[in-house]
Amino acid sequence: MAPVIEARQLHKVYAMGEMSVAALRGVDLAVGRGEFLAIMGPSGSGKSTLLHLLGGLEGASAGEVALEESTLAELGERAMTVLRRRRIGVVFQFFNLLPTMTAEENVALPLLLDGRPWHECTGRAAEALAWVGLADRGHHTPDRLSGGEQQRVALARALVIHPQVLLADEPTGNLDRAAGTLVLDLLRRACDEAGRTVVMVTHDPSAAARADRVVFLRDGRVVNELRGPGLTVDSLAQA
């Protein structure tokens, strides 16, 4: 089966004054439809940079990212914006909700920006909130929600577009264990029940153990991979 999203010899170099820092050094990565992939590695290994390039949030210095038939570098700015809005959902560690909007409005926002009718936006937002267990929180602003509830709103916002790929950057890193477990349950359901492809960056072996496959980065390179029965908290902590 052809991958849904693929990185080919991906390089990313950042200029820091007169110096250059290589964040990625020739990464090859392919993720299949409905697969849950976790990316692990020490701080500075390039995990978040890789996720940002996969989502088109940054451009590569060399190499390419392909989302099925679309090569991201070949798209113009407008086409790239539309692709992200319609085909890639992103969840960040710190929620990134708009504080003056209700949960329902935050979730509906990607659809509103895409020009969808108001009744469709609110209907799909309500469905997405119900799916993450927050049907009764739609009219609450973020300051009236716990951290775990805010992250579930952020997840509903990413899923409301019915994305082909869901990218999650340390989605449990700002949550207590109970709230984090609930978010991981939802990510797992997004794969198993909705067929979404999930790519998650995490430093937590217990979170990564929920994935189908884990790749390890070090110094901007893929250095190891585990899958299937090898995905235990102990094996991931020692990898």
Q: How is this structure best described in words?
A:
The model has no long low-confidence stretch (mean pLDDT about 90). About 35% of the residues lie in helices and about 25% in strands. The protein has about 240 residues and is of the alpha/beta class. The protein has a single domain, classed as Rossmann fold, CATH 3.40.50. Helix 3 packs across helix 4 and helix 4 crosses helix 5.
Task: Show the helix and strand layout.
Elements: E1 5-16, E2 19-31, E3 36-40, H1 47-54, E4 62-67, E5 70-71, H2 77-87, E6 88-91, H3 103-113, H4 118-131, H5 147-159, E7 165-169, H6 177-192, E8 197-201, H7 205-208, E9 213-218, E10 221-227, H8 233-238
Parallel strand pairs: 3-8, 3-9, 6-7, 7-8
Antiparallel strand pairs: 1-2, 1-4, 4-5, 9-10
Helix pairs in contact: 3-4, 3-5, 4-5, 5-6
CATH homologous superfamily (4th level) name: P-loop containing nucleotide triphosphate hydrolases
Major β-sheet annotation: 6 strands, mixed
| CATH level-3 fold name | Rossmann fold
| SSE pattern, N- to C-terminal | EEEHEEHEHHHEHEHEEH
Which architecture per CATH?
Answer: 3-Layer(aba) Sandwich
Radius of gyration: 18 Å
Count of strand segments: 10
CA-based shape: globular
Strand content: 25-35%
Kindly, what is the distance between the CA atoms of the first and last residues, rounded to a whole number of angstroms? 28 Å
What is the overall number of helices? 8
Helicity range: 25-40%
Number of domains: 1
| Derived structural class | alpha/beta
